[in-house]
Recover the amino acids of this structure.
């Protein structure tokens, strides 16, 4: 009893840094397992097998089987692998755009005004609508979704970076560098980049779950990945037709897996933000 | 060489009153001039104007040519009162020191900077130690005029003497014009050839308030 009590409180007793490190390692392990698994998975279990159709969760089929007798666990793993890849690529694209625009805004006030206008423009249009538009323009599929999500998620990070860069630019050490004859590019590379690196890392981590969710939403609506790809959005969209027949496991397990991944990343982003911000590091 | 500030006037954009009005000042190479004034009278603002950190009305010239140091080393260098504000917290001390010029190791030793300090972060050194770095950083061979804005106010007496001895010696050796700004009249009178009282050269109506 005592040892159980101890175990329950052990996690609570850890400080934020240890907790975050633990969550990061667990998530990294999980992601790696999913991505590697999705490449080497035995595809024979996701071929049509009618005798096994509509089976509930069991030891043999952890997440059950669908209306064509395909193993839902294998499909979910493959789908998650694809979703994570789309999310990773999209968040990297978003981060690159945000960093470039953030640094450009420090060049002069006209570029700054333009960047500000661009941020307002992209923020004023609903993400989903823009992703659908871009994705359709690029012919859909994984490429369309990645570019669509990448081109729409940079605004909040760009806004944060722009504000941060403005603050650094008014510091005495940047003014001193200018007085020593250093160019704007030199200052951006040597002064600004190292100081905004934390914001960039946190920004990328926080964009990731958004990107995955939006990829799944767009695919669910039928504008994203093509139906033959086992993405979570496709799985959820297809399973909607069978929910009324009582096959709850078709949507429950893939949805839950997606939710866990998204929440883990949100948690990492929030905790890192707290740890790296000196004003509330002791919380 | 002669540094000249002509009709310098300055006010903050939000204020109507001039902090500095029609101020004229000149400094020659190899000259050590002091400016004394009470706290808040505008000494630091003048220092920033002369070294190009703040924009003002009037002209700042070197040998009659206006000093517009953009994208090139400014021959008028300023040493600030608070050295920690002039150092990027994510840079090591060696990067901070060598940002300006390739300081030779003899001079580093002469300034009492220990080799181990070079690999430290700015928050790991005291104010006096940091000030040694910022003085040495400003003493590039390209520096023709050096403005010291209360650079030893926060230091103990022994360190004050050490730093001033070095700065004045190097200024004389290199023919640098030195402008010492402080509220400490005794210090300025001890170091400088010529002492000016800020209120006497500043025509601002603020001093009447």
């Amino acid at each position: 009893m005592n040892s159980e009590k101890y175990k329950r409180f052990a996690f609570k007793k850890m400080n934020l840094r240890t907790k975050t490190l633990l969550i990061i390692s667990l998530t990294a392990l999980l992601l790696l397992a999913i991505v590697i698994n999705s490449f080497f998975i035995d595809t024979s279990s996701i071929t049509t097998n009618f005798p096994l159709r509509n089976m509930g969760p069991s030891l043999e089929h952890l997440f059950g089987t669908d209306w064509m007798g395909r193993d839902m666990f294998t499909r979910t793993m493959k789908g998650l692998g694809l979703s994570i890849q789309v999310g990773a690529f999209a968040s990297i694209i978003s981060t690159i755009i945000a960093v470039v625009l953030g640094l450009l805004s420090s060049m002069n006030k006209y570029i700054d005004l333009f960047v500000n206008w661009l941020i307002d423009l992209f923020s004023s249009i609903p993400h989903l609508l823009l992703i659908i538009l871009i994705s359709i323009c690029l012919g859909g599929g994984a490429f369309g979704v990645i570019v669509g999500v990448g081109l729409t998620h940079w605004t909040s990070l760009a806004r944060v970076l722009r504000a941060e860069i403005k603050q650094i630019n008014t510091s005495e050490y940047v003014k001193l560098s200018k007085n020593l004859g250093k160019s704007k590019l030199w200052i951006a590379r040597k002064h600004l980049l190292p100081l905004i690196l934390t914001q960039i890392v946190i920004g990328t981590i926080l964009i990731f779950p958004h990107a995955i969710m939006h990829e799944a939403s767009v695919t669910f609506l039928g504008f994203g990945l093509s139906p033959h790809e086992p993405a979570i959005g496709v799985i959820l969209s297809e399973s909607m037709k069978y929910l009324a027949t009582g096959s709850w496991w078709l949507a429950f397990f893939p949805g839950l897996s997606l939710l866990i991944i998204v929440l883990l990343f949100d948690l990492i982003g929030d905790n890192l933000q707290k740890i790296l911000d000196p004003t509330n590091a002791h919380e | 060489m002669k540094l000249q500030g002509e009709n310098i006037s300055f006010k903050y954009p939000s204020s109507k009153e001039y902090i500095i009005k029609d101020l004229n000042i000149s400094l020659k190479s190899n000259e050590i001039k002091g400016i004394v004034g009470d706290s808040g009278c505008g000494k630091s603002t003048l220092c920033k104007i002369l070294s190009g950190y703040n924009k003002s009305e009037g002209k700042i010239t070197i040998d009659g040519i206006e000093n517009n140091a953009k994208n090139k080393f400014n021959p008028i260098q300023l040493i600030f009162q608070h050295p920690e504000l002039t150092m990027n917290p994510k840079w090591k001390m060696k990067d901070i020191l060598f940002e300006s010029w390739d300081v030779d190791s003899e001079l580093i030793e002469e300034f009492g900077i220990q080799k181990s300090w070079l690999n430290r972060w700015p928050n790991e050194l005291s104010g006096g130690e940091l000030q040694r770095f910022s003085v040495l950083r400003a003493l590039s061979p390209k520096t023709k005029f050096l403005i010291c804005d209360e650079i030893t106010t926060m230091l103990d007496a022994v360190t004050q003497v050490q730093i001033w001895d070095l700065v004045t010696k190097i200024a004389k050796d290199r023919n640098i014009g030195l402008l010492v700004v402080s509220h400490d009249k005794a210090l300025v009178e001890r170091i400088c050839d010529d002492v000016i009282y800020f209120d006497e050269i500043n025509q601002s109506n603020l001093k009447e308030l």
Q: What stands out?
A: The two ends of chain B are 37 Å apart (CA to CA). Chain B has a mean pLDDT of 87.
